[in-house]
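Following up on my earlier thread - several people asked me to post the actual chain instead of describing it. Fair enough. Here it is, all 321 residues.
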Amino acid sequence: MDRDAPWLPQENSRAGMLGLRGAVAPDAGLIAAAVAEIRDELAGHGVAGMPLGVDIAETPMILELQRVGIDVRDAQQVMLDARLVKSPDELMLLSTAAAMVDGVYQDITEALKPGVRENEIVALANKRLYEMGSDDVEAINAVSGERCNPHPHNFSDRIVRPGDQVYFDIIQSFNGYRTCYYRTFAVGRSSQPQRDAYAQAREWIDAAIDLVRPGVTTDQIARVWPRAEEFGFDNEMEAFGLQFGHGLGLGLHERPIISRLNSLEHPIELAEGMVFALETYCPATDGHSAARIEEEVVVTANGPALLTLFPAEELFVTNKY
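Reply from S.P.:
Thanks for posting it. Predicted structure:
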């Protein structure tokens, strides 16, 4: 720590390993030892009888804290509230992360042609992102052809064919700040059902973006999106995450969360400096194609500002013939 983070007091940096998501059993004693250390620290600072806020912890840790009489409180809510409005430095990091994905989408459009496999595009994107300085490529969804509907969140070794509709979601971070950035393409040519689905997804996302400004509440945004039954689902729980908004920052899913499932009854007021992704999904009438669009939005005093700049106003046809 003296070399990598000299501003931190040495005594504040301690090695630790508590169980690797349960792989090291609690009876190994690591968690009990850590809790004993925590109790000593609380006592040493004169706060042994006060509640302890915990952001994220494994279940055995929480249970052990409670077993020894520590009043555990949910600090995750406090931390999420604290991260709700981004600073200028955070906005710059989020913008840089999005700019990296702008460039990767350019590479994808050049490589996306018949014969390439979904996993090959994923490999290309991973390589480029790490070359540009990504510290974590968390996931890249690559979905093509008949896999587009219903919507999976993964990739396969499927071979892309002429006329396929293909969509991607690139989830990565730059200095800890995340992207969640969908784009949809057609390969070589597009059909009318594909173009219609894309136009509808674009209409839904534009209606949401147009509302973004300080003072607007998230229920107003959720109401411009279709009900689950209008695009093939039985209820909002089944459709959750398809017409959707979520905060972005150090976490992939921060506040505000915007959907018809939660926002109609529990709205949040937008404030200047919030950053969130808005995403829409529309299945095509051909029964297998679908369009997916996502834009990362900053709330400014003058309305919405987009961080995601790769062209998405209309369905992008790659390697057109």
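The longest strand covers residues 290-300. That should answer part of your original question.
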